[in-house]
Design brief:
The complex is a heterodimer of chains A (92) and B (292).
Chain A: E1 4-6, E2 18-23, E3 29-33, E4 38-40, H1 43-48, E5 56-57, E6 60-61, E7 66-67, E8 70-72, H2 75-80, E9 89-91
Antiparallel strand pairs in A: 1-9, 2-3, 2-8, 3-4, 4-5, 6-7
Chain B: H1 3-27, H2 36-40, E1 44-45, H3 49-53, E2 59-71, E3 77-81, E4 87-90, H4 92-95, H5 102-106, E5 111-121, E6 124-128, E7 135-137, H6 142-155, E8 168-171, E9 174-176, E10 182-184, H7 193-198, E11 211-214, H8 217-234, E12 240-242, E13 245-251, E14 257-260, H9 261-266, E15 271-272, E16 274-280, E17 286-291
Classes of the chains: A alpha+beta (92), B alpha+beta (292).
Protein backbone atom coordinates (compact mmCIF):
# COMPACT_ATOMS: atom_id res chain seq x y z
CA UNK A 1 0.00 0.00 0.00
CA UNK A 2 1.18 3.52 -0.78
CA UNK A 3 0.94 6.33 1.74
CA UNK A 4 -2.66 6.74 2.85
CA UNK A 5 -4.28 8.74 5.65
CA UNK A 6 -5.17 7.00 8.88
CA UNK A 7 -6.80 7.87 12.19
CA UNK A 8 -4.25 6.17 14.42
CA UNK A 9 -3.47 2.66 15.61
CA UNK A 10 -6.17 0.07 16.13
CA UNK A 11 -7.03 -0.45 19.83
CA UNK A 12 -8.11 -4.04 19.14
CA UNK A 13 -4.98 -5.50 17.55
CA UNK A 14 -2.38 -2.73 18.05
CA UNK A 15 -0.83 -3.58 14.67
CA UNK A 16 -3.38 -2.08 12.33
CA UNK A 17 -4.05 1.48 11.24
CA UNK A 18 -7.59 2.81 11.12
CA UNK A 19 -8.40 3.74 7.54
CA UNK A 20 -11.18 6.01 6.32
CA UNK A 21 -13.40 3.92 4.09
CA UNK A 22 -16.67 4.71 2.39
CA UNK A 23 -19.48 2.24 1.80
CA UNK A 24 -20.17 1.96 -1.91
CA UNK A 25 -23.91 1.59 -1.29
CA UNK A 26 -24.81 4.25 1.28
CA UNK A 27 -21.62 6.41 1.19
CA UNK A 28 -21.31 6.25 4.98
CA UNK A 29 -17.71 6.56 6.18
CA UNK A 30 -16.32 4.12 8.72
CA UNK A 31 -12.89 3.63 10.22
CA UNK A 32 -11.72 0.11 9.37
CA UNK A 33 -8.53 -1.43 10.74
CA UNK A 34 -6.29 -2.51 7.87
CA UNK A 35 -5.00 -5.41 9.99
CA UNK A 36 -7.81 -7.04 12.00
CA UNK A 37 -10.66 -5.38 10.05
CA UNK A 38 -12.56 -4.16 13.09
CA UNK A 39 -14.87 -1.36 12.01
CA UNK A 40 -16.24 1.75 13.72
CA UNK A 41 -19.13 3.57 12.08
CA UNK A 42 -18.85 6.45 14.55
CA UNK A 43 -15.59 8.11 13.57
CA UNK A 44 -15.89 10.79 16.23
CA UNK A 45 -16.43 8.39 19.14
CA UNK A 46 -13.51 6.09 18.40
CA UNK A 47 -11.24 9.06 17.73
CA UNK A 48 -12.10 10.64 21.05
CA UNK A 49 -12.19 7.42 23.07
CA UNK A 50 -10.05 4.46 22.02
CA UNK A 51 -11.95 2.18 24.38
CA UNK A 52 -15.02 2.46 22.15
CA UNK A 53 -15.68 -1.08 20.94
CA UNK A 54 -16.01 -1.74 17.20
CA UNK A 55 -19.60 -2.05 16.04
CA UNK A 56 -18.87 -4.23 13.00
CA UNK A 57 -16.21 -6.03 11.03
CA UNK A 58 -15.28 -5.60 7.38
CA UNK A 59 -17.17 -5.95 5.05
CA UNK A 60 -20.34 -5.35 7.08
CA UNK A 61 -21.88 -1.89 6.88
CA UNK A 62 -23.83 -0.92 9.98
CA UNK A 63 -25.97 1.56 8.10
CA UNK A 64 -26.81 -0.79 5.20
CA UNK A 65 -27.17 -3.76 7.57
CA UNK A 66 -25.38 -5.85 4.96
CA UNK A 67 -21.97 -6.72 3.62
CA UNK A 68 -20.72 -4.04 1.27
CA UNK A 69 -17.86 -2.96 -0.97
CA UNK A 70 -15.70 -0.23 0.53
CA UNK A 71 -13.65 2.51 -1.07
CA UNK A 72 -10.50 3.92 0.52
CA UNK A 73 -10.89 7.66 0.98
CA UNK A 74 -7.97 9.87 0.08
CA UNK A 75 -7.29 13.26 1.66
CA UNK A 76 -9.83 15.03 -0.53
CA UNK A 77 -12.54 12.48 0.22
CA UNK A 78 -11.83 12.77 3.93
CA UNK A 79 -11.99 16.55 3.69
CA UNK A 80 -15.30 16.43 1.83
CA UNK A 81 -16.67 14.14 4.53
CA UNK A 82 -15.64 16.73 7.12
CA UNK A 83 -13.30 14.28 8.83
CA UNK A 84 -9.90 15.91 8.28
CA UNK A 85 -9.53 16.76 12.01
CA UNK A 86 -9.44 13.03 12.72
CA UNK A 87 -6.47 12.28 10.44
CA UNK A 88 -3.48 11.33 12.61
CA UNK A 89 -0.98 10.66 9.87
CA UNK A 90 -0.18 9.06 6.52
CA UNK A 91 1.44 5.68 6.28
CA UNK A 92 1.67 2.49 4.27
CA UNK B 1 -2.12 6.29 -41.21
CA UNK B 2 0.12 9.34 -41.52
CA UNK B 3 2.04 10.71 -38.53
CA UNK B 4 -0.02 13.90 -38.70
CA UNK B 5 -3.30 11.95 -38.59
CA UNK B 6 -2.03 9.93 -35.60
CA UNK B 7 -1.18 13.10 -33.71
CA UNK B 8 -4.60 14.61 -34.44
CA UNK B 9 -6.32 11.40 -33.23
CA UNK B 10 -4.23 11.35 -30.08
CA UNK B 11 -5.02 14.99 -29.30
CA UNK B 12 -8.73 14.35 -29.88
CA UNK B 13 -8.68 11.26 -27.64
CA UNK B 14 -6.99 13.17 -24.81
CA UNK B 15 -9.47 16.04 -25.17
CA UNK B 16 -12.42 13.63 -25.09
CA UNK B 17 -11.02 11.87 -22.00
CA UNK B 18 -10.53 15.20 -20.24
CA UNK B 19 -14.09 16.27 -21.16
CA UNK B 20 -15.46 12.94 -19.87
CA UNK B 21 -13.56 13.32 -16.60
CA UNK B 22 -14.82 16.91 -16.24
CA UNK B 23 -18.43 15.85 -16.93
CA UNK B 24 -18.14 13.01 -14.44
CA UNK B 25 -16.87 15.31 -11.72
CA UNK B 26 -19.66 17.79 -12.41
CA UNK B 27 -22.60 15.42 -12.47
CA UNK B 28 -21.69 12.39 -10.39
CA UNK B 29 -21.86 13.16 -6.71
CA UNK B 30 -20.87 9.59 -5.90
CA UNK B 31 -17.36 10.01 -7.21
CA UNK B 32 -16.38 13.42 -5.98
CA UNK B 33 -14.86 12.00 -2.81
CA UNK B 34 -12.16 10.18 -4.70
CA UNK B 35 -11.48 12.45 -7.67
CA UNK B 36 -8.20 14.11 -6.90
CA UNK B 37 -5.76 11.37 -7.71
CA UNK B 38 -7.46 10.63 -11.03
CA UNK B 39 -6.05 13.77 -12.61
CA UNK B 40 -2.42 12.91 -12.07
CA UNK B 41 -2.77 9.12 -12.05
CA UNK B 42 -0.18 7.49 -14.28
CA UNK B 43 -0.76 4.23 -16.06
CA UNK B 44 -1.71 1.44 -13.67
CA UNK B 45 -0.80 -2.19 -14.12
CA UNK B 46 -3.72 -4.61 -14.46
CA UNK B 47 -1.78 -7.07 -12.33
CA UNK B 48 -1.52 -4.73 -9.38
CA UNK B 49 -4.99 -5.39 -7.98
CA UNK B 50 -4.14 -3.83 -4.64
CA UNK B 51 -3.32 -0.53 -6.34
CA UNK B 52 -6.28 -0.75 -8.71
CA UNK B 53 -8.72 -1.12 -5.82
CA UNK B 54 -7.58 2.23 -4.50
CA UNK B 55 -8.75 3.88 -7.74
CA UNK B 56 -12.30 2.51 -7.87
CA UNK B 57 -14.62 5.32 -8.92
CA UNK B 58 -11.86 7.21 -10.69
CA UNK B 59 -10.96 7.79 -14.34
CA UNK B 60 -7.87 5.64 -14.93
CA UNK B 61 -5.54 4.26 -17.57
CA UNK B 62 -4.75 0.58 -17.07
CA UNK B 63 -2.22 -1.47 -18.98
CA UNK B 64 -1.96 -5.23 -19.17
CA UNK B 65 -2.13 -8.33 -21.33
CA UNK B 66 -5.49 -9.80 -22.29
CA UNK B 67 -5.24 -13.41 -21.14
CA UNK B 68 -8.67 -14.56 -22.24
CA UNK B 69 -11.69 -13.13 -23.99
CA UNK B 70 -15.23 -14.36 -24.22
CA UNK B 71 -18.57 -13.35 -25.64
CA UNK B 72 -21.77 -13.92 -23.70
CA UNK B 73 -24.90 -15.38 -25.26
CA UNK B 74 -26.41 -11.89 -25.16
CA UNK B 75 -23.51 -10.49 -27.20
CA UNK B 76 -21.48 -8.73 -24.54
CA UNK B 77 -17.68 -8.94 -24.92
CA UNK B 78 -15.36 -9.53 -21.97
CA UNK B 79 -11.60 -8.91 -21.97
CA UNK B 80 -10.04 -10.71 -19.00
CA UNK B 81 -6.60 -9.45 -18.08
CA UNK B 82 -3.83 -11.95 -17.41
CA UNK B 83 -2.99 -12.63 -13.72
CA UNK B 84 -5.68 -10.23 -12.58
CA UNK B 85 -9.31 -10.08 -11.57
CA UNK B 86 -9.69 -6.96 -13.73
CA UNK B 87 -12.01 -7.20 -16.74
CA UNK B 88 -12.92 -4.74 -19.47
CA UNK B 89 -16.49 -5.25 -20.63
CA UNK B 90 -18.08 -4.03 -23.86
CA UNK B 91 -21.85 -4.32 -23.93
CA UNK B 92 -23.67 -5.54 -27.02
CA UNK B 93 -24.83 -2.09 -28.15
CA UNK B 94 -21.26 -0.79 -28.14
CA UNK B 95 -19.62 -3.81 -29.82
CA UNK B 96 -20.66 -2.57 -33.26
CA UNK B 97 -18.53 0.56 -32.79
CA UNK B 98 -15.43 -1.62 -33.03
CA UNK B 99 -13.99 -3.20 -36.19
CA UNK B 100 -15.26 -6.58 -37.32
CA UNK B 101 -15.08 -9.23 -34.64
CA UNK B 102 -15.43 -6.68 -31.87
CA UNK B 103 -13.11 -6.26 -28.87
CA UNK B 104 -13.05 -9.96 -27.99
CA UNK B 105 -11.42 -10.81 -31.32
CA UNK B 106 -9.41 -7.63 -31.86
CA UNK B 107 -7.56 -7.66 -28.55
CA UNK B 108 -7.30 -11.34 -27.57
CA UNK B 109 -3.72 -12.00 -26.39
CA UNK B 110 -2.67 -8.39 -26.93
CA UNK B 111 -1.10 -6.05 -24.43
CA UNK B 112 -3.37 -3.03 -24.28
CA UNK B 113 -4.07 0.19 -22.48
CA UNK B 114 -7.68 0.90 -21.53
CA UNK B 115 -9.01 4.13 -20.13
CA UNK B 116 -12.24 4.99 -18.38
CA UNK B 117 -13.94 4.82 -15.04
CA UNK B 118 -12.84 1.93 -12.84
CA UNK B 119 -15.78 0.22 -11.15
CA UNK B 120 -16.60 -2.97 -9.32
CA UNK B 121 -19.22 -5.51 -10.30
CA UNK B 122 -20.02 -8.21 -7.76
CA UNK B 123 -16.78 -7.29 -6.02
CA UNK B 124 -14.61 -7.68 -9.13
CA UNK B 125 -12.83 -4.83 -10.87
CA UNK B 126 -14.25 -3.77 -14.20
CA UNK B 127 -14.12 -0.99 -16.73
CA UNK B 128 -16.80 -0.40 -19.37
CA UNK B 129 -15.64 0.02 -22.95
CA UNK B 130 -18.14 2.20 -24.78
CA UNK B 131 -15.83 3.55 -27.48
CA UNK B 132 -12.78 2.32 -29.46
CA UNK B 133 -10.95 5.45 -28.29
CA UNK B 134 -10.73 3.87 -24.83
CA UNK B 135 -8.45 1.01 -25.87
CA UNK B 136 -5.19 0.75 -27.76
CA UNK B 137 -2.63 -1.97 -28.36
CA UNK B 138 0.71 -1.23 -26.72
CA UNK B 139 2.69 -4.42 -27.33
CA UNK B 140 6.34 -3.64 -26.76
CA UNK B 141 5.60 -1.04 -24.10
CA UNK B 142 4.79 -3.55 -21.34
CA UNK B 143 8.22 -3.12 -19.81
CA UNK B 144 7.36 0.37 -18.66
CA UNK B 145 4.64 -0.98 -16.41
CA UNK B 146 6.79 -3.91 -15.28
CA UNK B 147 9.41 -1.42 -14.23
CA UNK B 148 6.82 0.55 -12.28
CA UNK B 149 5.76 -2.64 -10.51
CA UNK B 150 9.29 -3.64 -9.59
CA UNK B 151 9.94 -0.20 -8.16
CA UNK B 152 6.78 -0.54 -6.08
CA UNK B 153 7.86 -3.97 -4.85
CA UNK B 154 11.21 -2.51 -3.80
CA UNK B 155 9.26 -0.59 -1.20
CA UNK B 156 6.52 -3.12 -0.54
CA UNK B 157 7.60 -6.21 1.35
CA UNK B 158 4.69 -8.28 0.08
CA UNK B 159 5.75 -11.91 -0.30
CA UNK B 160 4.31 -13.97 -3.14
CA UNK B 161 1.76 -16.47 -1.81
CA UNK B 162 3.18 -19.04 -4.23
CA UNK B 163 6.20 -19.33 -1.92
CA UNK B 164 4.00 -20.84 0.77
CA UNK B 165 4.18 -24.59 0.31
CA UNK B 166 3.14 -25.35 3.88
CA UNK B 167 -0.50 -24.58 3.06
CA UNK B 168 -2.67 -26.47 0.62
CA UNK B 169 -4.40 -24.22 -1.89
CA UNK B 170 -7.93 -25.43 -2.51
CA UNK B 171 -9.33 -22.47 -4.44
CA UNK B 172 -8.35 -19.17 -6.02
CA UNK B 173 -8.46 -17.41 -2.67
CA UNK B 174 -8.71 -20.35 -0.30
CA UNK B 175 -5.93 -22.20 1.55
CA UNK B 176 -5.99 -24.86 4.24
CA UNK B 177 -3.32 -25.53 6.87
CA UNK B 178 -2.39 -28.93 8.32
CA UNK B 179 -4.06 -27.83 11.61
CA UNK B 180 -7.29 -27.18 9.72
CA UNK B 181 -7.03 -23.39 9.71
CA UNK B 182 -8.59 -21.75 6.68
CA UNK B 183 -7.34 -18.68 4.88
CA UNK B 184 -10.12 -17.59 2.53
CA UNK B 185 -11.31 -14.47 0.76
CA UNK B 186 -9.69 -11.08 0.53
CA UNK B 187 -8.97 -8.17 2.84
CA UNK B 188 -10.10 -4.56 2.25
CA UNK B 189 -7.02 -3.91 0.11
CA UNK B 190 -7.79 -6.85 -2.15
CA UNK B 191 -5.04 -9.05 -0.73
CA UNK B 192 -5.79 -12.72 -0.16
CA UNK B 193 -5.70 -13.85 3.47
CA UNK B 194 -2.36 -15.54 2.81
CA UNK B 195 -0.91 -12.35 1.33
CA UNK B 196 -2.36 -10.42 4.25
CA UNK B 197 -0.54 -12.60 6.79
CA UNK B 198 2.60 -12.53 4.65
CA UNK B 199 2.87 -8.77 5.23
CA UNK B 200 4.24 -9.94 8.56
CA UNK B 201 6.97 -12.05 6.95
CA UNK B 202 9.00 -8.85 6.58
CA UNK B 203 9.34 -5.59 8.43
CA UNK B 204 7.79 -2.37 7.13
CA UNK B 205 10.10 0.04 8.97
CA UNK B 206 8.31 3.19 7.84
CA UNK B 207 4.83 2.00 8.77
CA UNK B 208 3.30 4.01 11.58
CA UNK B 209 2.80 2.16 14.87
CA UNK B 210 3.73 -1.45 15.56
CA UNK B 211 4.26 -4.23 13.06
CA UNK B 212 4.91 -7.76 14.34
CA UNK B 213 7.33 -9.67 12.11
CA UNK B 214 7.71 -13.45 12.00
CA UNK B 215 11.15 -14.98 12.15
CA UNK B 216 11.90 -17.91 9.86
CA UNK B 217 10.29 -16.87 6.58
CA UNK B 218 6.90 -17.37 4.94
CA UNK B 219 6.40 -21.11 5.54
CA UNK B 220 7.60 -20.90 9.13
CA UNK B 221 5.05 -18.13 9.73
CA UNK B 222 2.13 -20.40 8.91
CA UNK B 223 3.67 -23.29 10.83
CA UNK B 224 3.97 -21.04 13.88
CA UNK B 225 0.32 -19.97 13.56
CA UNK B 226 -0.75 -23.63 13.41
CA UNK B 227 1.36 -24.34 16.46
CA UNK B 228 -0.17 -21.41 18.33
CA UNK B 229 -3.69 -22.53 17.45
CA UNK B 230 -3.05 -26.09 18.66
CA UNK B 231 -1.48 -24.73 21.84
CA UNK B 232 -4.54 -22.56 22.46
CA UNK B 233 -6.78 -25.60 22.03
CA UNK B 234 -4.60 -27.67 24.34
CA UNK B 235 -4.60 -24.98 27.02
CA UNK B 236 -8.28 -24.24 26.38
CA UNK B 237 -7.60 -20.55 26.01
CA UNK B 238 -10.75 -18.49 25.88
CA UNK B 239 -10.89 -16.18 22.86
CA UNK B 240 -11.85 -12.54 23.22
CA UNK B 241 -15.10 -12.34 21.24
CA UNK B 242 -16.28 -9.11 19.65
CA UNK B 243 -19.22 -9.89 17.41
CA UNK B 244 -18.18 -12.04 14.50
CA UNK B 245 -14.47 -11.48 15.17
CA UNK B 246 -12.53 -13.25 17.91
CA UNK B 247 -8.93 -12.94 18.99
CA UNK B 248 -6.45 -15.20 20.76
CA UNK B 249 -3.12 -14.22 22.28
CA UNK B 250 -0.92 -17.28 22.69
CA UNK B 251 2.36 -17.30 24.62
CA UNK B 252 4.78 -19.48 22.69
CA UNK B 253 7.57 -19.68 25.29
CA UNK B 254 10.23 -18.68 22.79
CA UNK B 255 11.04 -15.95 20.33
CA UNK B 256 8.69 -16.15 17.34
CA UNK B 257 9.31 -12.74 15.87
CA UNK B 258 10.28 -9.18 16.51
CA UNK B 259 8.62 -5.79 16.71
CA UNK B 260 8.87 -3.85 13.46
CA UNK B 261 7.29 -0.70 12.10
CA UNK B 262 8.18 2.75 13.42
CA UNK B 263 7.57 1.68 17.02
CA UNK B 264 9.86 -1.31 16.56
CA UNK B 265 12.61 0.80 15.04
CA UNK B 266 12.44 3.27 17.91
CA UNK B 267 12.72 0.40 20.39
CA UNK B 268 15.48 -1.41 18.47
CA UNK B 269 13.21 -4.21 17.31
CA UNK B 270 12.67 -6.17 20.54
CA UNK B 271 11.82 -9.85 20.27
CA UNK B 272 8.23 -11.03 20.45
CA UNK B 273 7.16 -14.29 22.09
CA UNK B 274 3.38 -14.33 21.55
CA UNK B 275 1.17 -14.95 18.54
CA UNK B 276 -1.96 -12.85 18.10
CA UNK B 277 -4.66 -14.53 16.01
CA UNK B 278 -7.81 -12.87 14.67
CA UNK B 279 -10.43 -15.24 13.34
CA UNK B 280 -14.11 -15.33 12.50
CA UNK B 281 -15.99 -16.27 15.66
CA UNK B 282 -16.74 -20.00 16.05
CA UNK B 283 -14.80 -20.91 12.90
CA UNK B 284 -11.23 -21.68 11.90
CA UNK B 285 -11.27 -18.89 9.30
CA UNK B 286 -8.21 -16.77 9.93
CA UNK B 287 -8.46 -13.02 9.36
CA UNK B 288 -4.87 -12.28 10.35
CA UNK B 289 -2.14 -13.49 12.69
CA UNK B 290 1.21 -12.05 13.71
CA UNK B 291 3.79 -11.99 16.50
CA UNK B 292 2.95 -9.70 19.37
Amino acid sequence: MNLAPHAGSCPVCDNGLLRFQQCENCYAVSLICDECESSWSDVVSISNDLSTPPDASYPYCVRCQANSNWIYLNSLGIEQAGLTPFVRGESR
Amino acid sequence: MSRKTKIVRTVLAVALAALAAFSSSQFSGQDTAVQDTAVDASTLSARNVVELRKHVGQEVVIEGKIGRTNTSSSGNHFLNFEASEFTAVCFKDDVAKFDSGGPAKLFDGKTVQVSGKLETYRGKLQLKLTSPTQISIVDGLQKSVDRDESSVSDHDPLVDAAQVTYLKQIGDTHWLSPAGLEYRGRDPQGLTRVEHVLRHANDIPDRDGSHGVFTGGPNQAFQTIDEAWKLAEKKRLKPDVQGNRSTLTVSMGRKVGYLGGRNGRQRRNPELRKIFIVFETDTKNIVTAFPK
